[in-house]
Amino acid sequence: MVLRSEVAAGQTPVPNLFIDEYMPRASGSYVKAYLLLLRLEGKDVTAALLADLLEVSERDVLRALKYWKKQGLLELELDASGEIADMKLLDVAQVYRRSMQSPAARESAGEESGGEAENLPAAAPASVSAADGLAEKAAQETDLAAGAIPEKKSYPPSVLERLKAVDPDFGEMLFAVEAYLAHPLSVAETETFAWLYRDLGLPCSVLEYLVEYCVGGGHRSLHYMEKVALNWHRKGLRTLAQVREESQSFAQDNRAVLGAFGISGRTLTPDEREQVNRWHSELNMPSEVIAEACRRTIASIHEPNFAYAEAILRAFHEQGAHTMEAVRALPERRKSGRGKKNFYYERSVDYDAILQQEV
Question: What is the Cα–Cα distance from 297 to 36, expressed in whole angstroms?
Fold first, then answer.
Protein backbone atom coordinates (compact mmCIF):
# COMPACT_ATOMS: atom_id res chain seq x y z
CA MET A 1 0.00 0.00 0.00
CA VAL A 2 1.55 3.30 -1.13
CA LEU A 3 0.92 6.16 1.26
CA ARG A 4 -0.66 9.09 -0.58
CA SER A 5 -0.52 12.68 0.59
CA GLU A 6 -1.60 16.20 -0.29
CA VAL A 7 1.77 17.43 0.99
CA ALA A 8 4.52 18.43 -1.46
CA ALA A 9 7.08 15.69 -2.13
CA GLY A 10 10.82 15.91 -1.49
CA GLN A 11 10.56 17.42 1.97
CA THR A 12 9.02 16.76 5.34
CA PRO A 13 7.17 19.95 6.26
CA VAL A 14 5.24 20.12 9.54
CA PRO A 15 2.45 22.71 9.27
CA ASN A 16 2.40 25.31 12.02
CA LEU A 17 -1.34 24.72 12.31
CA PHE A 18 -0.67 21.10 13.22
CA ILE A 19 1.79 22.19 15.93
CA ASP A 20 -0.54 24.89 17.30
CA GLU A 21 -3.92 23.13 17.13
CA TYR A 22 -3.45 19.36 16.96
CA MET A 23 -0.13 18.45 18.57
CA PRO A 24 -0.81 19.79 22.13
CA ARG A 25 -3.86 17.54 22.55
CA ALA A 26 -2.22 14.39 21.18
CA SER A 27 -0.05 11.96 23.08
CA GLY A 28 3.63 11.85 22.21
CA SER A 29 3.31 8.43 20.56
CA TYR A 30 0.55 9.71 18.27
CA VAL A 31 2.62 12.76 17.29
CA LYS A 32 5.62 10.56 16.42
CA ALA A 33 3.40 8.34 14.28
CA TYR A 34 2.05 11.37 12.39
CA LEU A 35 5.54 12.79 11.79
CA LEU A 36 6.69 9.43 10.48
CA LEU A 37 3.76 9.35 8.06
CA LEU A 38 4.82 12.75 6.75
CA ARG A 39 8.32 11.36 6.18
CA LEU A 40 7.08 8.22 4.38
CA GLU A 41 4.82 9.97 1.87
CA GLY A 42 4.89 8.12 -1.47
CA LYS A 43 6.40 4.95 0.01
CA ASP A 44 4.97 1.49 0.63
CA VAL A 45 3.65 1.57 4.18
CA THR A 46 2.40 -1.26 6.39
CA ALA A 47 1.52 -1.43 10.06
CA ALA A 48 4.51 -3.74 10.56
CA LEU A 49 6.89 -1.21 8.97
CA LEU A 50 5.56 1.64 11.12
CA ALA A 51 5.79 -0.51 14.23
CA ASP A 52 9.43 -1.41 13.49
CA LEU A 53 10.43 2.19 12.82
CA LEU A 54 8.68 3.48 15.96
CA GLU A 55 9.74 0.47 18.09
CA VAL A 56 6.17 -0.15 19.24
CA SER A 57 3.56 -2.82 18.58
CA GLU A 58 1.31 -2.89 15.51
CA ARG A 59 -1.61 -2.44 17.89
CA ASP A 60 -0.09 0.87 19.05
CA VAL A 61 0.39 1.93 15.43
CA LEU A 62 -3.26 1.27 14.57
CA ARG A 63 -4.38 3.21 17.65
CA ALA A 64 -2.38 6.20 16.45
CA LEU A 65 -3.74 5.97 12.90
CA LYS A 66 -7.33 5.73 14.15
CA TYR A 67 -6.73 8.75 16.36
CA TRP A 68 -5.60 10.89 13.41
CA LYS A 69 -8.50 9.57 11.35
CA LYS A 70 -10.85 10.72 14.11
CA GLN A 71 -9.16 14.14 14.08
CA GLY A 72 -9.83 14.35 10.34
CA LEU A 73 -6.18 14.51 9.28
CA LEU A 74 -6.01 11.01 7.82
CA GLU A 75 -8.12 8.89 5.50
CA LEU A 76 -7.74 5.27 6.58
CA GLU A 77 -9.20 1.98 5.37
CA LEU A 78 -8.38 -1.42 6.87
CA ASP A 79 -8.97 -4.78 5.23
CA ALA A 80 -10.69 -7.76 6.84
CA SER A 81 -7.46 -8.86 8.53
CA GLY A 82 -6.91 -5.42 10.06
CA GLU A 83 -4.04 -4.51 7.71
CA ILE A 84 -3.86 -1.07 6.12
CA ALA A 85 -5.67 -1.16 2.76
CA ASP A 86 -5.59 2.54 1.92
CA MET A 87 -4.32 5.66 3.66
CA LYS A 88 -4.01 9.33 2.76
CA LEU A 89 -2.72 12.33 4.69
CA LEU A 90 -5.05 15.32 4.31
CA ASP A 91 -4.17 18.99 4.14
CA VAL A 92 -4.17 20.29 7.72
CA ALA A 93 -5.26 23.81 6.82
CA GLN A 94 -8.28 22.60 4.83
CA VAL A 95 -9.30 20.20 7.58
CA TYR A 96 -9.04 22.92 10.19
CA ARG A 97 -11.02 25.43 8.10
CA ARG A 98 -13.82 22.92 7.58
CA SER A 99 -13.92 22.18 11.31
CA MET A 100 -14.28 25.91 12.06
CA GLN A 101 -17.05 26.64 9.57
CA SER A 102 -19.93 26.49 12.08
CA PRO A 103 -20.26 28.28 15.47
CA ALA A 104 -21.05 24.95 17.11
CA ALA A 105 -17.80 23.50 15.78
CA ARG A 106 -15.82 26.49 17.02
CA GLU A 107 -17.40 26.22 20.45
CA SER A 108 -16.71 22.48 20.59
CA ALA A 109 -13.08 22.96 19.56
CA GLY A 110 -12.65 25.76 22.08
CA GLU A 111 -14.05 23.61 24.88
CA GLU A 112 -11.80 20.69 23.96
CA SER A 113 -8.57 22.64 23.71
CA GLY A 114 -9.33 25.16 26.46
CA GLY A 115 -10.61 22.56 28.91
CA GLU A 116 -7.55 20.43 28.47
CA ALA A 117 -5.25 23.45 28.76
CA GLU A 118 -6.78 24.26 32.12
CA ASN A 119 -6.95 20.76 33.55
CA LEU A 120 -4.36 18.52 31.94
CA PRO A 121 -0.74 19.00 33.02
CA ALA A 122 0.97 18.72 29.65
CA ALA A 123 -0.80 21.73 28.14
CA ALA A 124 -0.04 25.40 28.66
CA PRO A 125 -2.27 27.61 30.89
CA ALA A 126 -4.91 29.66 29.06
CA SER A 127 -3.12 32.92 29.95
CA VAL A 128 0.09 31.79 28.22
CA SER A 129 0.60 32.53 24.53
CA ALA A 130 0.92 29.67 22.04
CA ALA A 131 4.64 30.37 21.57
CA ASP A 132 5.25 30.50 25.31
CA GLY A 133 3.25 27.32 25.75
CA LEU A 134 5.37 25.51 23.17
CA ALA A 135 8.55 26.82 24.81
CA GLU A 136 7.34 25.58 28.19
CA LYS A 137 6.47 22.19 26.70
CA ALA A 138 9.93 21.97 25.09
CA ALA A 139 11.56 22.79 28.44
CA GLN A 140 9.49 20.08 30.14
CA GLU A 141 10.52 17.54 27.50
CA THR A 142 14.18 18.53 27.98
CA ASP A 143 13.86 17.91 31.72
CA LEU A 144 12.24 14.55 31.06
CA ALA A 145 14.97 13.57 28.64
CA ALA A 146 17.52 14.37 31.36
CA GLY A 147 15.73 12.01 33.76
CA ALA A 148 14.18 14.70 35.98
CA ILE A 149 11.20 13.47 37.99
CA PRO A 150 8.25 15.89 37.84
CA GLU A 151 6.16 16.34 40.96
CA LYS A 152 3.41 13.77 41.29
CA LYS A 153 0.00 15.33 40.76
CA SER A 154 -3.53 14.54 41.87
CA TYR A 155 -6.28 14.72 39.28
CA PRO A 156 -10.02 15.19 39.96
CA PRO A 157 -12.08 12.26 38.66
CA SER A 158 -13.64 14.55 36.05
CA VAL A 159 -10.21 15.34 34.61
CA LEU A 160 -9.29 11.65 34.46
CA GLU A 161 -12.51 10.90 32.61
CA ARG A 162 -11.78 13.75 30.20
CA LEU A 163 -8.28 12.43 29.61
CA LYS A 164 -9.68 9.01 28.74
CA ALA A 165 -12.18 10.61 26.38
CA VAL A 166 -9.66 12.91 24.66
CA ASP A 167 -6.95 10.25 24.43
CA PRO A 168 -8.32 6.77 23.56
CA ASP A 169 -4.81 5.35 23.85
CA PHE A 170 -4.82 6.15 27.57
CA GLY A 171 -8.26 4.62 28.10
CA GLU A 172 -7.31 1.38 26.33
CA MET A 173 -4.12 1.15 28.38
CA LEU A 174 -6.12 1.42 31.62
CA PHE A 175 -8.46 -1.32 30.39
CA ALA A 176 -5.46 -3.60 29.73
CA VAL A 177 -4.00 -2.81 33.17
CA GLU A 178 -7.29 -3.74 34.86
CA ALA A 179 -7.22 -7.07 32.99
CA TYR A 180 -3.69 -7.81 34.24
CA LEU A 181 -4.51 -6.83 37.83
CA ALA A 182 -7.95 -8.51 37.74
CA HIS A 183 -9.69 -5.60 39.44
CA PRO A 184 -11.01 -2.15 38.51
CA LEU A 185 -8.50 0.62 39.08
CA SER A 186 -9.16 3.02 41.93
CA VAL A 187 -8.95 6.78 41.42
CA ALA A 188 -5.53 6.79 43.12
CA GLU A 189 -4.25 4.02 40.85
CA THR A 190 -5.60 5.79 37.76
CA GLU A 191 -3.88 9.00 38.91
CA THR A 192 -0.57 7.15 39.12
CA PHE A 193 -0.83 5.90 35.54
CA ALA A 194 -1.93 9.36 34.37
CA TRP A 195 1.19 10.80 36.01
CA LEU A 196 3.48 8.18 34.46
CA TYR A 197 1.91 8.75 31.06
CA ARG A 198 1.34 12.51 30.93
CA ASP A 199 4.14 13.82 33.14
CA LEU A 200 6.91 11.26 32.75
CA GLY A 201 6.13 10.69 29.09
CA LEU A 202 6.10 6.88 29.21
CA PRO A 203 4.07 5.59 26.23
CA CYS A 204 1.01 3.45 26.84
CA SER A 205 2.74 0.44 25.26
CA VAL A 206 5.54 0.77 27.83
CA LEU A 207 3.05 1.07 30.71
CA GLU A 208 1.16 -2.02 29.56
CA TYR A 209 4.44 -3.91 29.38
CA LEU A 210 5.36 -2.56 32.84
CA VAL A 211 2.29 -4.14 34.40
CA GLU A 212 2.66 -7.38 32.44
CA TYR A 213 6.31 -7.59 33.44
CA CYS A 214 5.74 -6.89 37.15
CA VAL A 215 2.71 -9.17 37.49
CA GLY A 216 4.60 -11.92 35.64
CA GLY A 217 7.38 -11.58 38.22
CA GLY A 218 4.94 -11.92 41.12
CA HIS A 219 4.78 -8.18 41.96
CA ARG A 220 1.24 -6.79 41.93
CA SER A 221 1.96 -3.78 44.12
CA LEU A 222 1.43 -0.44 42.38
CA HIS A 223 4.24 1.00 44.51
CA TYR A 224 6.62 -1.61 43.07
CA MET A 225 5.47 -0.84 39.51
CA GLU A 226 5.99 2.88 40.10
CA LYS A 227 9.56 2.31 41.31
CA VAL A 228 10.34 0.18 38.24
CA ALA A 229 8.86 2.87 35.96
CA LEU A 230 10.92 5.59 37.66
CA ASN A 231 14.05 3.48 37.27
CA TRP A 232 13.36 3.15 33.54
CA HIS A 233 12.74 6.90 33.33
CA ARG A 234 16.00 7.78 35.11
CA LYS A 235 17.88 5.56 32.66
CA GLY A 236 16.28 7.31 29.69
CA LEU A 237 14.27 4.29 28.56
CA ARG A 238 11.27 5.48 26.54
CA THR A 239 10.43 2.81 23.97
CA LEU A 240 9.07 -0.71 24.23
CA ALA A 241 12.25 -2.12 22.68
CA GLN A 242 14.40 -0.33 25.26
CA VAL A 243 12.46 -1.54 28.30
CA ARG A 244 12.33 -5.08 26.93
CA GLU A 245 16.10 -5.07 26.57
CA GLU A 246 16.39 -3.72 30.12
CA SER A 247 14.09 -6.43 31.49
CA GLN A 248 16.17 -9.12 29.79
CA SER A 249 19.27 -7.66 31.41
CA PHE A 250 17.40 -7.64 34.71
CA ALA A 251 16.52 -11.32 34.32
CA GLN A 252 20.18 -12.21 33.78
CA ASP A 253 21.35 -10.21 36.79
CA ASN A 254 18.47 -11.55 38.87
CA ARG A 255 19.47 -15.15 38.22
CA ALA A 256 23.17 -14.46 38.73
CA VAL A 257 22.91 -12.44 41.97
CA LEU A 258 20.12 -14.33 43.73
CA GLY A 259 21.60 -17.65 42.64
CA ALA A 260 25.01 -16.72 44.07
CA PHE A 261 23.34 -15.57 47.29
CA GLY A 262 21.30 -18.77 47.47
CA ILE A 263 18.01 -16.84 47.44
CA SER A 264 15.00 -18.39 45.72
CA GLY A 265 11.32 -17.62 45.32
CA ARG A 266 11.63 -13.90 44.51
CA THR A 267 13.27 -11.37 42.21
CA LEU A 268 15.49 -8.41 42.95
CA THR A 269 13.65 -5.50 44.54
CA PRO A 270 13.91 -2.10 42.80
CA ASP A 271 16.41 -0.94 45.47
CA GLU A 272 18.52 -4.06 44.99
CA ARG A 273 18.32 -3.62 41.24
CA GLU A 274 19.53 -0.04 41.64
CA GLN A 275 22.55 -1.32 43.55
CA VAL A 276 23.33 -3.87 40.85
CA ASN A 277 22.98 -1.16 38.21
CA ARG A 278 25.51 0.93 40.15
CA TRP A 279 27.94 -1.99 40.22
CA HIS A 280 27.68 -2.16 36.44
CA SER A 281 27.82 1.57 35.69
CA GLU A 282 30.08 3.01 38.41
CA LEU A 283 32.40 0.07 39.03
CA ASN A 284 32.30 -1.33 35.46
CA MET A 285 31.74 -4.86 36.74
CA PRO A 286 30.31 -7.59 34.48
CA SER A 287 27.65 -9.97 35.75
CA GLU A 288 30.04 -12.85 36.38
CA VAL A 289 32.27 -10.73 38.65
CA ILE A 290 29.20 -9.45 40.52
CA ALA A 291 28.08 -13.03 41.07
CA GLU A 292 31.57 -13.92 42.33
CA ALA A 293 31.39 -11.10 44.90
CA CYS A 294 28.05 -12.45 46.07
CA ARG A 295 29.49 -15.96 46.43
CA ARG A 296 32.44 -14.60 48.42
CA THR A 297 30.02 -12.70 50.65
CA ILE A 298 28.31 -15.97 51.55
CA ALA A 299 31.70 -17.66 52.09
CA SER A 300 32.78 -14.85 54.41
CA ILE A 301 29.72 -13.97 56.51
CA HIS A 302 27.38 -16.87 55.66
CA GLU A 303 24.42 -14.65 54.72
CA PRO A 304 23.29 -12.53 51.76
CA ASN A 305 24.37 -8.92 52.20
CA PHE A 306 24.37 -6.45 49.30
CA ALA A 307 26.48 -3.88 51.16
CA TYR A 308 29.15 -6.49 51.91
CA ALA A 309 29.14 -7.63 48.27
CA GLU A 310 29.61 -4.01 47.21
CA ALA A 311 32.60 -3.71 49.54
CA ILE A 312 34.18 -6.68 47.78
CA LEU A 313 33.46 -5.20 44.37
CA ARG A 314 34.97 -1.86 45.38
CA ALA A 315 38.09 -3.72 46.50
CA PHE A 316 38.24 -5.40 43.08
CA HIS A 317 37.73 -2.00 41.44
CA GLU A 318 40.51 -0.34 43.42
CA GLN A 319 42.94 -2.97 42.18
CA GLY A 320 41.78 -2.84 38.56
CA ALA A 321 40.20 -6.30 38.57
CA HIS A 322 37.18 -6.09 36.26
CA THR A 323 37.19 -9.58 34.76
CA MET A 324 37.09 -13.05 36.26
CA GLU A 325 40.64 -13.66 35.02
CA ALA A 326 41.86 -10.55 36.84
CA VAL A 327 39.94 -11.48 39.99
CA ARG A 328 41.41 -15.00 40.04
CA ALA A 329 44.91 -13.52 39.59
CA LEU A 330 44.62 -11.51 42.81
CA PRO A 331 46.61 -13.09 45.67
CA GLU A 332 44.61 -14.54 48.53
CA ARG A 333 45.42 -15.93 51.96
CA ARG A 334 43.62 -17.45 54.90
CA LYS A 335 42.46 -15.17 57.66
CA SER A 336 44.44 -16.05 60.78
CA GLY A 337 42.76 -17.27 63.96
CA ARG A 338 39.33 -18.04 62.52
CA GLY A 339 39.99 -21.16 60.48
CA LYS A 340 37.97 -20.03 57.49
CA LYS A 341 38.89 -18.55 54.18
CA ASN A 342 38.59 -14.84 53.64
CA PHE A 343 39.95 -12.81 50.75
CA TYR A 344 42.75 -10.26 51.06
CA TYR A 345 44.61 -8.71 48.19
CA GLU A 346 47.88 -6.84 47.78
CA ARG A 347 46.84 -4.14 50.26
CA SER A 348 45.20 -6.60 52.71
CA VAL A 349 41.70 -5.19 52.19
CA ASP A 350 39.51 -5.53 55.29
CA TYR A 351 35.97 -5.95 54.00
CA ASP A 352 34.47 -5.56 57.46
CA ALA A 353 36.12 -2.14 57.80
CA ILE A 354 34.93 -1.11 54.33
CA LEU A 355 31.43 -2.26 55.20
CA GLN A 356 31.44 -0.04 58.30
CA GLN A 357 32.50 2.89 56.14
CA GLU A 358 29.70 2.22 53.67
CA VAL A 359 27.14 2.14 56.46
Answer: 51
User: Per-residue pLDDT for 38 more than 50?
Assistant: yes
Task: Give the range of the structural domain holding residue 316, as residue numbers without chain letter.
Answer: 242-358
**Per-position DSSP letters for 201-225, written without gaps between them:** ---HHHHHHHHHHHHHTT---HHHH
Count of residues for the chain? Answer: 359
Check if the beta carbon of residue 276 is closer than 8 Å to that of residue 269. no
Residue 348: inside a domain, yes or no?
Answer: yes
- Average pLDDT over every residue of 255-271: 86
Stated pTM of the model: 0.45
Residue 126 phi, psi dihedral angles, 5° rounding = -65, -25
- Indicate the residue among 186, 205, 235 that finishes a domain: 235
Assigned domain for 349 exists: yes
DSSP for 321-344, written as a single string = --SHHHHHHS---BPTTT-SB---
Instruction: Return d(Cα 294, Cα 59) in angstroms, integer.
Output: 42
CB-CB neighbours of 20 under 10 Å? 15
Give the CA-trace dihedral at 284, 290, 293, 298, to 10 degrees: 160
Q: Which residues of 40-74 are buried (b: 16+ CB within 10 A; e: fewer)?
A: bbeeebebebbbeebbbebebbbbbbbbbeebebb
